[in-house]
Amino acid sequence: MPWSRAPSTDSWTDSGQVRWRHPSTLTASARSCRRRCQPAAARSTCAPRTGQAALSAIESNYAGFGSGLVDPATGIGYQNRGAFFRLEPGHANSLAPSKRTLHTLTPGMLLRDGRPWVVHGSMGGEIQPQVFAQVVSAIVDGGVDVATAVGAPRWAADVPRHLGLPSLTALETRYRPEVVDGFRARGHVPRIVDAWSSAMGHAHAIEIIHDSEPEDHRTFAAATDLRSEGLPGAW
Predict the structure, then answer these.
(1) Do 202 and 122 meet the contact criterion of CB atoms below 8 Å apart?
(2) Helices (H), the chain
(3) What is the pLDDT of residues 84-135, one digit of tens each?
């Protein structure tokens, strides 16, 4: 329900099975959290020992506490990924029925010979598609293992604000000085961030290696990002 249609005199509005809380009734701490909280997401990647299937999934509130709406029956908070819709008529990303908005969520999977090969994904707001591209390029073009790809130095074309243009350039300190000089020579003003900075996104990946001998034998390799909390596990 759009906020403009929610009655301002009543803190709760019924819509089917869900009751929506109007933002005017949020506590001061809740309103403050919506302003200052960073985007929040959690992702998981898994594969069974058969190696014939795999899963890459992500849950994202987007703006910290998401929409600020909670279903009182289940306690589930609603995300606000729809914030990327535009209200400008004729815009490619304009709000419309049965339409998905632009977003940055990138759970992914690479196939080899029609079977799962690398199951991966990233978190981190606007940088997620860029992490996706950097990890995949390192594996496919660079031929490195998943741990090396996930742990490689990162760069980012970041945005100054929501829906802003990617006008900010950021690089981790682990890049060689000549790489930074190359960015400057091309007109960029790079911002150097700490090594393993959480601001450069989080990535996780599993590689499934189908061995020819013995027949149908599989080896698994998993990597989690030092920039985030995570753990590769097997059971």
Answers:
(1) yes
(2) 28-36, 128-140, 146-151, 177-185
(3) 888 888 888 899 999 988 888 888 999 998 889 999 988 888 889 999 999 9
- Structural tokens at position 110: 């690479």
Ranges of beta strands (E only) in the chain are 12-15, 18-21, 40-46, 55-62, 108-112, 115-123, 155-158, 168-172, 191-193, 202-211, 217-224
- Which residue bears the tokens 């760069």? 155
Q: Which helix (H) or strand (E) holds 68?
A: none
Helix, coil or strand: residue 183:
helix
Domains and CATH numbers, the chain: 40-60+104-224 (3.60.20.40)
| Amino acid type, 108 | G
CA-to-CA dists, residue 137 to 22, 102, 190, 209, 216, angstroms: 45, 23, 22, 18, 28
CA 127 to mean position of chain CA atoms: 8
pTM for the full predicted model: 0.74
